[in-house]
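Handout, section 4.2: multi-component inputs.
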Amino acid sequence: MTLLDHPDAKAFILHWGEMGTHWGVNRSVAQVHALLYLSEKPVDAEAIVEALGLARSNVSTALKELQTYAIVRRVHVEGDRRDHFVAEGDLWEMLMRIVAERKRREIDPTIALLAELADRLRSDDTAPAHLRDRVVRMHEFLSTLGGWYEQVRTLPKSTLVTLMKLGSKVARFLPGSKAKD
Amino acid sequence: MTLLDHPDAKAFILHWGEMGTHWGVNRSVAQVHALLYLSEKPVDAEAIVEALGLARSNVSTALKELQTYAIVRRVHVEGDRRDHFVAEGDLWEMLMRIVAERKRREIDPTIALLAELADRLRSDDTAPAHLRDRVVRMHEFLSTLGGWYEQVRTLPKSTLVTLMKLGSKVARFLPGSKAKD
DNA sequence: CAGATAATTCTGTAAATTCAGAAATTGATA
DNA sequence: TATCAATTTCTGAATTTACAGAATTATCTG
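Output:
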């Protein structure tokens, strides 16, 4: 593969793989994603195998995982019966989808558990007050954060980008703020 | 330890430990943190060992790690020469510190690498245009995100809480928005 | 300063994760 | 419906990571 011959492409892919391992995604998954992200055209599984030196099976698993994150999709290339794959090119979109999936997998179940614990502790006289307080607080915190996320994700991307470009200047527009920096 | 006898405390700690493994922190570190978070009083290392059934060495390592995140600190308890530890109780503060540390450890080096790659690709005629474009875009994206974070973290916590409670309603206050929901 | 206790670092082992190859399945074509 | 390519699933091996215990270093007390 010609793309992979480029040392900077290789550096990107290797680094991306390491990043993955620090963020709860396995190295192969992250590398496959990096390769697809850099690639101009849809790539088939066999080409990924050759480019990254992974086993066919791993590539298959990685592609499946990336598709559940919805940051890679299967496309059909005319005159070729093999499946080809492309990565989401819009980075903002990519980030949103990863966040959505991780929330679904990990945060939501955590909130559910905390709700249960908090609920039980509230009606348990024998429970140490401090324990109750801490669990309730954590539940409230994550729920608030989750609720905020659910709201913000409904905003159009353009609004989000505007907000981000504003940076700390958002504060200016809040009601009750004397407009200064 | 009396706190740990409570089944809900145990459930919290175990779940927190699993969460850790999905977010790039090892189980012991997350469990020690959970225990300290739930505990009313400062806890010494030996007590943690007994409560969680970990080796003394692991507890030592975990405490060190939590201190580099600055979400646990050492406190002195009168009349006891052993070190005792307490977790940050303000959850918002806790989150900010974790984010800060992970950015420092993982995001900043990534941005630095991308800057280097993007720079080299810009002055490399032989590089595929698409590769250059993708790397440059990723660099810009992460830089923007990083810059946004650096700005937002300077805002007072109260402002941040206000912003969060506002949720999607922030959009209303942006210049050029016809105030509706 | 000697003895004791606490804390950290080092090292071998256990556990968990990742991954390659084999086997099984799917699905397209003739 | 038989065949062949493509893809996925399963399983054992290899690598990596987490951890317990031993050894070392630091700190406190009398």
